[in-house]
Amino acid sequence: MAHPGKKLLFMGSEFGQFIEWKYDDSLDWHLLNYPMHSAMHDYVRQLNGYYVDHPELWEEDCDWSGFSWISCDDNDNSAIAFFRTGKDETDSTVVICNFTPVVRHSYRIGVPVKGDYVEVFNSDAEAFGGSNVLNEGVFAAQDVPMHGMDQSIELTLPPLATIYLRRKGCEAEKPDCEEEQLNG
After folding, report:
1. pTM (2 d.p.)
2. What is the DSSP string of 103-159?
3. Contact in structure between 13 and 30 (CB atoms under 8 Å)
4. Regarding beta strands 161-167 and 139-140, do their DSSP bridges make them parallel or antiparallel, or are they unpaired?
5. Residue pair 182/89 in contact by the 8 Å Cβ criterion
6. First to last CA, the chain
7. Is the CB of residue 91 less than 8 Å from the CB of residue 142?
8. Distance (Å, rounded) from C-alpha 93 to C-alpha 164?
9. Contacting residues for 75 by C-beta, under 8 A, at least 6 apart
10. 37-54 pLDDT, tens per residue?
11. Least confident window among 5-14, 46-55, 76-85
């Protein structure tokens, strides 16, 4: 959802339907009676809500100014990180994906702006059927250069998951955000 480009979700995918959709049959809505299908439905609902509420994910969708890699070459950990920015640079989300079933503790990534970061979305949340490896609290950017940026944060990457981070203050009130240019 955070990667640039238009989004496509086939009917039934929002609750994990097993068989492909057929135009002459109804969807398998009865699957929502099962906990994991219901969790998938909640996940898609909340992910869509985040997408709609955060213009950085769609505003500059067809322009490179809205997307910057943080790390795209971490083959050893099978992880990538990037950030999305809207027309207003305070509209920004850092996205980190772990493509392995291994929890990555003390994982350091560069961040585009100095400040305090909070996790605002985690696909591994128990409510979505995940293992609930969460990053709670505030992560202060440290003056430790990483990924071509002047500062970085250290956190835990949940298994087979994607997390979204926002700079504290930017997740609620834009006036609290510092007026800083993004690195990268």
Report:
1. 0.86
2. -EEEEEEEESSSSEEEEEEETT-GGGTS------S-EE-BS--BTTBSEEEEEEEPT
3. no
4. unpaired
5. yes
6. 22
7. no
8. 6
9. none
10. 999 999 999 999 999 999
11. 5-14
